[in-house]
Predict the 3D structure of the following.
Amino acid sequence: MRIGGFVKQSLMDYPGKIAAVIFTQGCNFRCGYCHNPQLVLPELFLSNPEFASLNILSYLKERKSWLDGVVVSGGEPTIHKDLPLFLKEIKDMGYSVKLDTNGSNPFILEQIIKENLVDYIAMDIKTVLDSNTYSKLIGISNADFIIENIIASIYLIKQSNLDYEFRTTKIPNEQVVDLMTPYLSDIKRFTFNEFRNGDIVKNYIKCNS
C-alpha cells in the first residue's frame, strides 16, 4: 500500500467510534476542488518512513485497547491491488473498518464486501450521474465507464448488510442537482460535504508545465 498520511486518533471520521485514519496515495480522479493534491498527484507524493504499512499495522496492534476502528481513505484506496490484504490484516486485529471511496471500482468493492473485510462504506457521488457533467468535474475526458461503475457500486453497497453513507460536495454558484435519483432510493444516509477551495488544478498545471 502507498500511504501518504496517518491520523492516530479521530472522533470525526467514523460515526460513533474512536478511529485511526489511513490516507492512501494516488487517485484516478482530478476534482478541481480537491485540497489534498499530495495524495493525488504522483509528482507531489512524499515519502515518510512513519507511513510505511508495517509501521502503521504495528501501531494499530499496540493501540487495540484505545481504538475502536480504522478508516482507510485517500486519495482513492480501491486503485491499490493489495487493499483487500491490507484490510484483512486490520480486521484480523479485531478492528471495525470503514472505507472511503469514489465508487469507481465495483470489482474490488464486491470482493471486500464478500470477504467481510469492511464494516462501513462512505461513497462520494461527485455530481449528477451524467457522463458530461461527471467528466468536467473529475477531469476525465469520457466518464461513461466511470458512471457505469459508480452505479454498480451504489447497488452493491445498498444490497450489502453494511452500514454506509453516500455523500457529495455542494459546489458554490452551481445549481444544486437532484441526486435522489432511482439509484439512490431507500438509502440509509445521504449527506452534503462542505466545499473547500482546493489547489489540485494549479498543482497539476505546475507539475505538468
User: Anything to note?
Assistant: The chain has a mean pLDDT of 85. The chain has six helices and seven strands. Residues 3-208 form a domain with the TIM Barrel fold (CATH 3.20.20.70).
